[in-house]
Amino acid sequence: MGSFYRPPNGNANIQLSELEKTLHYISNKTRNNPNHTVEENWIFLKLFISQSMASHIPSKTTSRRHNLPWLSSETKRRCRKKHRMYRKAKKSDSPAAMAAFKTF
Question: What is the Cβ-side half-sphere exposure of residue 86, based on CA atoms within 13 angstroms?
């Protein structure tokens, strides 16, 4: 069998150089002013990380349950029917209704 190793593309090198620049920026910013306390350096680092996360990490809000593209309308209909059968079986406490639910 062949190896699953795949050499990194050029994007990895770009991202690594950006990381190196960021680390260099942070270390210079905290070292240049020796009057800063540890607390002030921590606040700077925390603010820098949160701003970087907000600007570079993509975010997307998704709907909860009703708009799932991988579920077809027929599958959704069958899920709703099974849920109705479950509620009916639990409410009526009938063995026939529970059997119908389990065999669906």
Answer: 6
Q: What is the pLDDT of residue 96?
A: 93
Look at residue 1 in the predicted model and tell me its pLDDT.
Answer: 44
Q: In angstroms, rounded to a whole number, what is the distance separating the alpha carbons of residues 51 and 54? A: 5
User: What's residue 74's pLDDT?
Assistant: 92
Amino acid found at 47: L
Q: What tokens appear for 49 in the block?
A: 């990380």
Average pLDDT for runs of 10 along the chain of length 104: 52 64 76 78 85 78 72 90 95 93 91
Q: Which residues contact 104 (CB under 8 A, 6 or more apart)?
A: 81, 82, 85
Burial 54-92 (b: 16+ CB within 10 A, else e): eeeeeeeeeeeeeeeeeeeeeeeeeeeeeeebeeebeee
Tokens of 26: 């942070």
Question: Cα separation of 23 and 28, whole Å?
Answer: 9
Is the distance from CB of 100 to CB of 87 less than 8 angstroms? no
